[in-house]
Write a structure and sequence with these properties.
108 residues; alpha+beta; Immunoglobulin-like
């Protein structure tokens, strides 16, 4: 009987591991937000609670929407799992407060 409990725990652990979200691309270009990744097959996936898609038979999903998140970060949700992704190429030149520090090599 203890072996049955061990098998159940092993299977439960495998199911939890498969539910993770892995982001393979997250960028903003030409007025579009592009986010692509992998989760469990056949899951509803949402982007910032505004856009929804379904992962395919092997778990791949992708968004390509005309949207720019104000914080240049997006939350991707699949079931109970949430992944916060930094969006490459999202910041505009004017988004940085003040000039960048000058390199001070050799100064103390």
């Amino acid at each position: 009987m203890p072996w049955l409990v061990s098998i159940f725990l092993l299977l439960a652990g495998l199911s939890a591991a498969r539910a993770d979200i892995r982001i393979e691309e997250s960028r903003y270009a030409n007025g579009k937000l592009i986010v692509a990744g992998v989760t469990s097959p056949g899951r509803a996936v949402t982007l910032d609670g505004k856009f929804e898609t379904q992962s395919d038979g092997v778990g791949n999903f992708a968004f390509q929407v005309e949207y720019k998140p104000a914080s240049c970060m997006s939350d991707i949700r699949a079931g109970e799992e949430v992944y916060s992704a930094v969006i490459a190429g999202c910041l505009d030149t004017g988004d940085v407060d003040g000039p960048l520090p000058k390199e001070t090599v050799g100064e103390h």
